[in-house]
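Internal tracking record. Fields below are filled automatically when a chain is submitted to the structure queue. Please do not edit lines marked as system-generated. If the sequence contains nonstandard residues, flag them in the REMARKS field before resubmitting.
Queue: standard
Priority: normal
Entity type: single polypeptide chain
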Amino acid sequence: MFQLFLATPEKKLVGDSELSEITVPAHAGELNILPGHAPLMTTLDPGVLSYKLKSGQEERLAIGWGYCQVSAAGVSVLVEEAVSSSEIEAASLDKEVEKLEMLLGQDSLSEEDWVRTEKMLATYRAQLTLKSEKH
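SYSTEM-GENERATED OUTPUT FOLLOWS
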């Protein structure tokens, strides 16, 4: 078992809970972390993060861009955004995804705006993925 700390700029979602494993959407691909994992630090892409508590209960969250650090003490995850399936309203997200896709198709976006829009789109898509898993 090891500890998990998970937070966004607005709130702490998990603080020092014991878990048996965690799977994160690392930049280079999905990363499954088990007790005794080698120390590392990686960036996270928007996607679905899942973890299994010591009790066996599994939790899944849609996350935005962030960082993950694995140490002997446990795993720390700091992300821009994290939401559970119950917090996601799929109908309004579908509309937002459509708007962002149209925006990305325009030539008038600066490079900085394009990158920001692409990140937002990826975060919304991760939320839709999580919501669709629950149905």
